[in-house]
## 1
Amino acid sequence: MKPNTLARALSRDAVRARLKAPRPPKPRSDEATTRRLVAAGNTEPFDAGKYPKVMMPGSVYRPPGQEHVPSVPAAVLVPLVEREGGFTVLLTQRTADLKSHAGQISFPGGRLEPEDADAAAGALRETYEEIGLSAGHIEVLGTLDAYSTVTNFEVTPVVAVVTPPFDLKPDPVEVADIFEVPLAFFLDPVNHQRHSRELGEENGRKILRAFYAIPYGERYIWGATAGMLINLYEVLTAT
């Protein structure tokens, strides 16, 4: 099924059913996804055989001396906005002066707080704090696979449908922009890429960190956000 056709055919019940359907645990190495992108030619070739260690997207990394530091639980909302022409995905661009992930494109979310009953509660709280989207417009459908970041967060992506009309009030400290991308764009595998960059050294050997990217016009969506979107693609297109 073509991406546009699939996107138009998806209802909130269909998305919920695919999220709830049994699926094998996703290996942190993400080797199957990488093989798919390599086969499609959507990956950089220079890292093959050049580095003794390649960290795959979503795999856990601890710098020397911090191997036993536990991950910090976090959650993000993956908001599917129910538009007339099909779902769109709501994303934010972080402000340029933040201490971490400045200027990057992300989902609303953050670390879980003790008062959060679960990942969904944390994602809804953070979404309201960051962009002013109230829970009354949001229906949680399920979760994707947890994603580990190089900044030591274990992130649970909470997928939800957002019903318009709604007003947004971005936090000016954290959010520079809010925009929507058609879900069909993310469901087209031709738009998925894998890239790499040097992460550091371990025992005198350089480590390469692989990451996903899904450029959209002038927006460069990469890292954990792109990884979660590719996971969404895999869940929604599973047969």
## 2
Amino acid sequence: MHLISLFAHPAFLLHQWVKAMGLGTTYMLLFIAIFLETGIVVLPIVPGDSLLLASGVFASISGQLQLGILIPLLAVGAVLGDQSNYFIGKFLGERILKSPKWKKRLSSKLSRSEDILNRFGKGAMFFSHFIPVGRTFIPFLCGISGLPWRKFSTLNAPGDCLWALLLLSIGYFCAKIPFVKKYLGLIALIAVGCLVLSVLVSFFKSKKKEGKHRGKGRADEGL
């Protein structure tokens, strides 16, 4: 029941959260969360799209968070996150990929991101934050490849700002639609369910792929 309450009354709960920690701390935690979402290649832990949409919704229905503060603040968090990943790739990328532990964990995502980058080039750098896998790994790959920082930043930073602007605004203005406002709890539960389902599907796909690689490796050893 507590979980249902969490999504059924987001405005009330946000009010309690802000009341307990203060607006400044709330803004800071949102900034840190967006930064961490792409700032550390080995730690892609935050669903940034969902967080931005939820922040926009909360700002709209609670009146406590301000859209005019959220947009520049979280856009800067996204830009700095990508900058961090670019420099991690530039200075530590080869060392990370030489580690069997990290290579195994990151190889499939890096491979998908590399394919996106090769196919779409500049477009992939601009829209990297709109791509769930690419937002973490495309900046990292750009750093490893030796792409000049100025070229990367010129293409990437405007895309990050557009990402924050669009998703926060969508959440903010959709929350004002009567139907959305009335069924916000149900919509949030469905969104969370879809998120959990996508994580589970991705997990089982990766396990299946690992199983195939192991089977192929054993077959090669037999030969």
## 3
Amino acid sequence: MAHGYWLVDHPIYAIIPFVKIQKNLSSTRQRWLNRPIQAYKLQLWLIDNGSLTARLQQRFNKFAVEAIEVKYAKIIQDETALLRQPNYQYALIREVLLMGNNQAVVFAHSVLPRASLRGAWNGLGRLGNKPLGATLFANPKVKRTALSYKKLTPNHALYQHTTRHLAQEPDVRKLGYLWARRSIFSLSCANIMVTEVFLPQLLIEDLDKN
């Protein structure tokens, strides 16, 4: 009882646990997962550790990469820590659509820090419509971190990037979330982050193929 009265007499201490909970909730919303939860039909696509480019090339008769935007821009906030970059840092951002049978099936967002575009990777900023994944997986010295996953909601920057590039696709704009996965590729001291956002057309095309 005495402890309870102490809290009443000192209300500022009484609100501290609530503040901590709020911070934890905010952190949870930003967190990426170690495995996808309730991804259903996308599960096998998400957890595949191989080259997504190679798998799409096997799945579709016609595969292509459509470069959407390549420019220097600020790194998204929840990417800076993993890349060990300051919040204000600019990097080369490459965004492309992976096309299967003339339909956009994956939106790929790659972050290439300036320091990573030297040496063996000095040509990665000039790939054009060539797949980045094919280049990364072709080098056996390249290491890749474990995949992490997230349901992107409309307030997330990557959801907004994806749907902006797919403005002609009303079904995409109506979705409450989009599944994404990301990992970091490393060669010596150079790191590149690749995020892949899986689009509804992938499953439709997948079903049509079967």
